[in-house]
Amino acid sequence: MSALDLVRPDLAGIPNYLACSTKEKIRLHINESPWKPLEAYELPLNRYPDIEPQLSLEKELSKFYQVAPCELLLTRGADEGIDFLMRLFLSPGRSSMMQFPPTFLMYAFYARLQQASIISCPLEGPDFHFNRERLLELWEPHCKMILLCRPNNPTGNLLSLETIASLCEEFADRSIIVVDEAYIEFANTQSATTLIHRFENLFVLRTLSKAHGLAGLRLGCVIGSQAMIEVLRTIAPPFAFSSLVLEAALSAMKHPEWVEGTVKNIIHYREELILCLRNFSWVEHVFPSKANFILIKTSFAKPLYAWLEDHHILVRHFAGNPVLQDMLRITVGTAAENELLLAVLHSFHTPDHN
Ligand SMILES: Cc1ncc(COP(=O)(O)O)c(C=O)c1O
């Protein structure tokens, strides 16, 4: 048995539409309008997007992530990568996936859409650490996917590559291991993509929404072994990426130094902010972070959230989540934004002092 056998049997050989390049051809084959209403753009917006820019972007991204183009599938954000993987491996009403809360809420969202059940293996202790023994206890044969977030949102901590490699080995032909590395650029560490040649059951999610500063384009990718990516490609719809989006992304990819510079800044500001936040007497704990956000623990999470909002600063409060209700997640901003945040925090008086 190979990890390829984990693909939903009813999807084997699904017929898919393969878009091909039609440059210089007279296009009378897909019912487009021959005219475009907007002359402001150079692009032929009356036409479905040509496959060439998508292939070029996949090539650029594969260089950036140091994998081969055949090991990468472009998606509309990492979110769509999660959705595709669940559709490919989780049979509705039969399969389950395992997640490690507190974590990114969209894992449970897409699992529910897919009618898969969810096994939760909570991160433990005051430092939210991963418990491998608990995972082994909770795993059951219908669990076709183990979904890890590295660094984890919202706790900001990082699983080691050794842990990931050992899980890939342990579950080689039983579960796929998905590693969501949406924030990995801020962690200054090796990506799990370095393991894809060793493990066919491993998929890594990357995104252009965070370090690349392109959340508005909605682009990300799934990286895995060539054989697995080939199968994943069979369920990807044609013409999914707008010509404008592809053009903008290709322009941005010409400036990898921009990513490097901004990531450096965010890491620097993050460490500065962590030190400053630790000085507030009403902050009980500032979690170390390998991402572009910081989680703090305070009994005043709710009034603090409201105070910041009154001053036009939005942070994330996880009201209703018993594990996170006394915590706030703060995204690292520009130097000016962080300064303003600290000034508003200094002006906050805990309800006891009022
Ligand atoms: C852990 C994690 N994964 C994936 C995503 C989604 O990223 P994208 O914008 O690429 O869909 C987010 C967004 O915040 C995230 O926090």
Structure described in brief:
This protein has helices at about 50-65, 75-90, 105-115, 130-140, 160-170, 225-235, 245-250, 255-280, 300-310, 335-345, and strands spanning about 70-75, 95-100, 115-120, 145-150, 175-180, 200-205, 220-225, 285, 295, 315, 325-330.
Layout of SSEs?
Layout: H1 51-65, E1 72-75, H2 77-89, E2 96-99, H3 106-113, E3 117-120, H4 132-138, E4 143-149, H5 161-170, E5 176-180, E6 202-207, E7 220-224, H6 226-233, H7 243-252, H8 256-278, E8 285-286, E9 293-297, H9 301-310, E10 316-317, E11 327-331, H10 335-346
Parallel strand pairs: 2-3, 2-4, 4-5, 5-6
Antiparallel strand pairs: 1-7, 6-7, 8-9, 9-11, 10-11
Helix pairs in contact: 1-7, 2-3
Please report which band the strand proportion falls in: under 5%, 5-15%, 15-25%, 25-35%, 35-45% or over 45%. Answer: 5-15%
Number of strands: 11
How helical, in percent, are the residues? 25-40%
CATH architecture of the largest domain: 3-Layer(aba) Sandwich
Uncertain segments of ≥5 residues (pLDDT<50)? none
| Alpha-carbon distance between the two ends | 66 Å
Radius of gyration: 22 Å
Strand order of the largest sheet: 1-7-6-5-4-2-3
Q: How does the overall form come out from the CA principal axes?
A: globular
Overall number of structural domains:
2
Q: Please work out how many helical segments DSSP would assign.
A: 10
The helix-strand sequence is HEHEHEHEHEEEHHHEEHEEH
CATH superfamily of the largest domain: Type I PLP-dependent aspartate aminotransferase-like (Major domain)
The CATH topology assignment of the largest domain is: Aspartate Aminotransferase, domain 2
Quick one: biggest sheet?
7 strands, mixed
Q: Which ligands, by name, code or SMILES, are bound?
A: pyridoxal-5'-phosphate
Assembly state (oligomeric): single chain
Structural class: alpha/beta
> For this structure, what is the CATH class of the largest domain?
Alpha Beta
